[in-house]
Amino acid sequence: MVATAGDHSALESQIRQLGKALDDSRFQIQQTENIIRSKTPTGPELDTSYKGYMKLLGECSSSIDSVKRLEHKLKEEEESLPGFVNLHSTETQTAGVIDRWELLQAQALSKELRMKQNLQKWQQFNSDLNSIWAWLGDTEEELEQLQRLELSTDIQTIELQIKKLKELQKAVDHRKAIILSINLCSPEFTQADSKESRDLQDRLSQMNGRWDRVCSLLEEWRGLLQDALMQCQGFHEMSHGLLLMLENIDRRKNEIVPIDSNLDAEILQDHHKQLMQIKHELLESQLRVASLQDMSCQLLVNAEGTDCLEAKEKVHVIGNRLKLLLKEVSRHIKELEKLLDVSSSQQDLSSWSSADELDTSGSVSPTSGRSTPNRQKTPRGKCSLSQPGPSVSSPHSRSTKGGSDSSLSEPGPGRSGRGFLFRVLRAALPLQLLLLLLIGLACLVPMSEEDYSCALSNNFARSFHPMLRYTNGPPPL
């Protein structure tokens, strides 16, 4: 009986533990349902809300596990001690709590995903806000220090300061989109009426004020650099010098163009050399022109003073004139190169023609070889091929058909052989074609009078019709 009473006491203790676990599970499940039905937080309080919610889900899961473990133990005790206790009501309560939790798990998971997405948005928003806040502090301090420095009128110093200005302007332009995104997303994170939301609104207001101050400081420093540029003697000397250089180059170019195609090859070569030198000078001046354009783009775009407008217009004219001259000079150089190629091919053709004439004569007379003062210039662009006419051995004809260079020398054996073969083919080919034509006509003439009979009258008109012929005579009728 003592053992039986002890077992019964342990069983009642386990039943009380199960009841307490069921009460805890119901309470935690009720809290979870309340959170699921409530609005998902999106503001600064989201960190603590998400951590609290995940902790509550963990406690619920742990309580349900305890309920299942205690229920299993009670079933084992009931089997070993039948009749001492009835667990029907306890099993019903346990099954109801477990079913309620299993139905709640899907909603709890959906709520967790929404809170996690909102948390990621809030963390990104807070990270951008902290990054912009730190950058605004550093940039504001740097611009204040730059404005306190004494500005120099040296052009190299101004170029360095313009480079720094470009870096700051690039950084401002890069963060302009981030500032806009923060202001657009801020209402989503400041809806709650809490201390964290009010602090966030104050911080956003300060951020916008500091952003406006950084932009105004940057424009003020740009204005100071613009004044220093207008007082810079090197800037004005560089722009004036480039204008004079471009005018000089334009004058030199106009002395060469338009190009006469009838000029000698030596003169064309000299023009080509001069244009190449002009192009080289223009290419070398591109760096200085680019430097002027950079200064104008950074400091003179929105200028209003007369001096600033004149300087900006001068830089604009220099850039356009350099581009136009480069384009024109490159075009003239290409035209000259084409003319020089044609001239060289004409000289080669003239030397071939002269070699052919010398080969037909067999030898070069001293008079014909040194008759260059009396030769006639061949118009450029026409090929001076030898024409059939007077005898090639005539001294007069050979003196009028002299080469374009100083004196003619005997042609090499290879060149004279090729010229002779070319002339033989040129003379024999028409004759051979005429002979072939005569042979073809002769084949059309009939061999005898019988060939004129009507038996052969169908040789063309009905050549596509089948024609039968009896090899051993006609069949008997």
TrEMBL record:
Mode of membrane association: Single-pass type IV membrane protein
Compartments in which it is found: Nucleus outer membrane
Keyword Glycosyltransferase listed: no
Keywords linked to the UniProt accession: Membrane, Nucleus, Phosphoprotein, Repeat, Transmembrane, Transmembrane helix
Regions of this protein lying in the Perinuclear space compartment: 448-477
Domain of life: Eukaryota
Cytoplasmic side: 1-426
Comp. bias regions, Polar residues: 360-376, 384-409
SMART domains, A to Z: KASH (SM01249), SPEC (SM00150)
One cellular component term from this protein's GO annotations in UniProt: nuclear outer membrane
Residue ranges occupied by any KASH domain in the UniProt entry: 418-477
Gene3D superfamilies: 1.20.58.60
Region (Disordered): 351-414
Family of the protein in this entry: Belongs to the nesprin family.
The protein's name: Nesprin-1
Species annotation: Homo sapiens (Human)
Origin organism lineage: Eukaryota, Metazoa, Chordata, Craniata, Vertebrata
